[in-house]
Amino acid sequence: MTEDMVPVHPDERMNFRCGSENTCFNACCRDLNQTLTPYDILRLKRHLKMSSQEFIRTYTSLHHGPESGLPILTFKSNPETGHACPFVTARGCSVYEDRPASCRMYPLARAVSRSRDTGQINEFFARIEEEHCKGACSISKKTVREWLDEQNVETHNIQNDKLMQLIHLKNTMLPGRLDGAQSDIFYLALYDLDEFRTRIFDAGLIADLDIPAGFLEQVKANDEALLDFGIQWIKYMLFGIELSLGCQNGA
Ligand code: SF4
Ligand code: SF4
């Protein structure tokens, strides 16, 4: 499989159409080596009405960044299906409403930079050109920006940008490979959300922290609020950054 990346501007027209009429239908969901972000996992496990532990055990493989030691989850590879995504069917994606960010973006890739002065995030896009994808043969009047709006990827991007900030902080304040305990803190608070919730509310994980009851109620009831708190808890545990106990974004 050959692949090229061509930079594109958000206002440029994007000739692309994906659908079951294409001879390549579902080709992009095979031969996968796909990384899942914490928010991808949150959405997928909720869609499937599974706990995070059950989802991770059933559908993912855990790796660690060789230099960073950060936990990385990918879809479990299955040679019997040609390494196809576990959710692809003859009719397309069976988890379409909650598919991961990279599936929503394809055939685009997104990179971001953050201004040191203002904190503003700038986005850059590139088109991934792969032989198997025939969607580019279609003419469209839509711009890149309009196409992205249709994919409903904004919420994923906002959540994934929080992860990017956390990794930037890790690389700055804790360069090199995390030890096992540090890596476990990342894993628990980012990926294994239901276990994180259980440890908070049934095992006294944060009993020594002075956290208002109203804030805890949000964290208990809302996965997005729990993930936001998880990011804060990692910053507190590993970098000594004070918790900010205002309203959680996801609640
Ligand atoms: S989640 Fe859906 S869109 Fe993404 S690879 Fe799997 S089947 Fe394809
Ligand atoms: S290979 Fe490209 S055009 Fe074909 S189904 Fe996948 S994204 Fe759509």
What does this structure look like?
The structure is a single chain. This protein is α+β, with helices and mostly antiparallel strands and 251 residues long. It folds into 2 domains: 3-159, no CATH class; 160-239, no CATH class. It contains 9 helices and 8 strands. It has helices spanning 38-47, 52-59, 101-105, 144-151, 154-173, 180-190, 193-202, 213-221, 223-239; strands spanning 3-8, 35-36, 60-64, 71-75, 88-89, 92-93, 108-114, 121-130. The strands form 3 sheets. Strands 1-8-7 form a 3-stranded antiparallel sheet, with no helix packed on it. Strands 2-4-3 form a 3-stranded antiparallel sheet. Bound molecules: iron/sulfur cluster (2 copies). One iron/sulfur cluster is lined by residues 29, 85, 87-88, 93, 95, 99-100, 103.
Number of strands: 8
Oligomer: single chain
* Morphology call: globular
Secondary structural class? alpha+beta
Cofactors, ions, other ligands: iron/sulfur cluster
The rounded Rg comes to 19 Å
Measure the end-to-end span.
43 Å
| Widest β-sheet, arrangement of strands | 1-8-7
Helix/strand order:
EEHHEEEEHEEHHHHHH
Q: Main beta sheet, described?
A: 3 strands, antiparallel
Estimated share of beta-strand residues: 15-25%
Low-confidence stretches: none
Q: What's the overall average pLDDT, rounded?
A: 93
Counted by DSSP, the helix tally is 9
- The domain tally reads 2
Helix content: 25-40%
